[in-house]
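Re: that chain you flagged

S.,

Sorry for the slow reply, it's been a week of failed gels. I finally had a moment to sit down with the sequence you sent. For the record, here it is as I used it:
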Amino acid sequence: MDLACIDLWINYFGEKSLLQPLWDTLRLNYQDYVRSPLFPIVLTVSSYFIICLPYLICDIMGDTWPWVQQFKIQPSQRPTASTLLHCAGVTLYNHVFLVLPASVAQWAWRPPADLPNQAPSLLELIAGVTGNLLLFDFQYYIWHLLHHKIRWLYVTFHAIHHNYSAPFALATQCLSGWELITVGFWTTMNPIILRCHLLTTWAFMVAHVYVSIEDHCGYDFPWSSSRLIPFGIYGGPSKHDVHHQKPSTNFAPHFSHWDKIFGTHADFCFSAAKK
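Prediction finished late last night. Pasting the structure tokens below so you have them in one place:
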């Protein structure tokens, strides 16, 4: 039995891949789509709005769903229709005038991606996604810290994201064009720097969209990443909520180690209903 388990581990987490059938389906049946330079952009944009939708419904339903509102981090602060429309408008503007032109430019200038025959192992995919998140966490910590410490950078580029002290899902991409371009650049370049498989790259992009929205959702659900990942190494929505209340703290977007190392960490309390 033990040998069978070891053999299964070696085959499907090492030499072979549980992801091979999925990769073969994409590579053989949808080759023209997934090779397109537009595919990563379509993937991330569609993922953003799909993942935002459940949180948006929770915000709209409000007190009519008390079983959901018990997990609200700031129960007295809920987005109004005007704030939701403002963030949706900023997001739409950025996608039409920045993301769309960038998509067209990539489609025109960038050659289609090569598709390797072999899928990554499950361990390679997990390691690649984790590595990309850690690298982005460091990059954005430095960027974020500078844009709070240097007033001109804050006022010119970052202040729009702090219009709301109680974040909500649609506020995730309520950003200046400069910040959106910077985030998009790192999200695109980091998998290239780490030499990730395309499937790992796409998984990272979707995972990054998810955790970014979760950080801003305003809810501390039992399945929040910060509750599932042990030892307090991951910040999650409560930590980022504190940043919007105390902007001189918690600059790292996802993990906690950089804030703890540089003394910018601030503790947070989980929703009272879960204590």
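What I noticed first: The longest helix spans residues 81-109.

Talk soon,
D.
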